[in-house]
Amino acid sequence: MAERFVSEPIQPAAGTFDAAGMTRGEPGLPRQFTWRDQQYTVAEVIEAWKEDGPCRNGSPEMYLRKHWYRVRTAEGPEMTIYFERQPQSKQHSKKRWWLYTVGSKEPVR
């Protein structure tokens, strides 16, 4: 399967967050979200992982930066989405969920 790089924010549907994940200190993966005016439903989580990084102020601590999910949607495509724990700028402070890649069965050109 080919993947297409996207890197665009998605809009989670209200009331569809995974409450069980939030009890573990993880973001609540939205079960539905909108991207480019189309709604998608998460049918299956294929893989989940975390990304950490060093403190940005010079201390030796490591901090959790992103939660990644490879999902299969009910509409067909596999997508890689992530939750950014600390937005990079004030301009993007409300954009915490991002679509990273979209898979397709056709080769990427």
Description:
Helices cover 5% and strands 53% of the residues. The chain is mainly beta. The chain has one domain (2-104). A hairpin with a 2-residue loop joins strand 3 (32-35) and strand 4. The longest helix has 5 residues, at 19-23. The chain is globular. The two termini are 13 Å apart. Residues 1-30 are annotated as: Disordered. Residues 1-102 form the DUF6504 domain. It comes from Anaerobaca lacustris. It holds the Pfam family DUF6504.
Overview in brief:
The chain is mostly beta strands and 109 residues long.
List keywords for this structure.
7-stranded antiparallel β-sheet; mainly beta; DUF6504 family protein; 53% strand; 1 helix
* Shape field: globular
Strand order of the largest sheet: 1-7-6-5-4-3-2
- Helix fraction bin: under 10%
Secondary structure: number of strands = 7
Count of domain modules: 1
Q: What is the straight-line distance between the termini?
A: 13 Å
| Elements, N to C (H/E) | EEHEEEEE
Largest sheet report: 7 strands, antiparallel
> Which residues sit in consecutive blocks of at least 5 with pLDDT less than 50?
none
Mean pLDDT, to the nearest integer, reads: 87
Measured on Cα atoms, how large is the radius of gyration?
15 Å
Strand content: over 45%
Structural class category: mainly beta
Number of helical stretches of at least 4 residues: 1
Region (Disordered): 1-30
Pfam family, one: DUF6504
Domain DUF6504: 1-102
Organism: Anaerobaca lacustris
